[in-house]
Amino acid sequence: MSGEFGVPHVPRPVPPPRPDLPPRRVRVTRPPTGRPRSTTVASEIDAGSAVGEVYIASLMRAQLRLALGTVALLVLTIGSLPLLFALLPVTRRAEVVGVPLPWILLGVLVYPFLWLLGWVYARRADRHEALFSELVGERAKTGDR
After folding, report:
1. pLDDT in tens, 66-99
2. Choosing a second label site near 57 at 20 to 30 A (CA), which of 42, 75, 109, 132?
3. Long-range Cβ pairs for the range 52-58 (8 Å, 24+)
4. Residues 107, 96: contact at Cβ < 8 Å?
5. Within 10 Å of residue 143's Cβ, how many Cβ atoms?
6. What is the pLDDT of residue 37?
């Protein structure tokens, strides 16, 4: 390497430290290198790194588990009503206040149940996303630990 004015740069030898003298001053010309930078969860997700993929996969697993549980509950309750009517003919002929039971179940009571199921699903999905956002936001403020 060339130094100033084309003269080759030769590093000076560093003398060993002497205990009777104070430590040598060091001139800082740039930030230290070789030190790992602190990254945030948000930057990991944006970069598409393996760590970011783990966080995203975790959120997606939680959302999938919630959706499958909701669908399973829907199938077990409303989806099983036709099977109930087919296996127990008494339920087809039963009446409540002069109205056939299947009409009451399928025409009236299904809708409040569907609304309740949707409301619970939305609240839990929002909670999953809020926890994820809190995790990403918290790590973004403090950096990885």
Report:
1. 999 999 999 999 989 989 999 998 988 888 999 9
2. 75
3. 55/132, 55/135, 55/136, 58/132
4. no
5. 11
6. 58
Q: What is the rounded CA–CA span in Å between residue 48 and residue 33? A: 24
| In the predicted structure, residue 62 carries a pLDDT above the cut 90 | yes
Give, in order, the Cα–Cα distances in Å from 107 to each of 90, 101, 122. 18, 10, 24
Boundaries of every domain in the chain: 37-142
Are 45 and 52 a contacting pair, CB within 8 Å? yes
38 contact partners, CB below 8 Å, separation of at least 6? 143, 144
- The reported pLDDT for the residue numbered 6 is 62
pLDDT digits (tens, 9 = 90+) for 14-26: 777 777 777 777 7
Structure tokens at 38: 């602190």
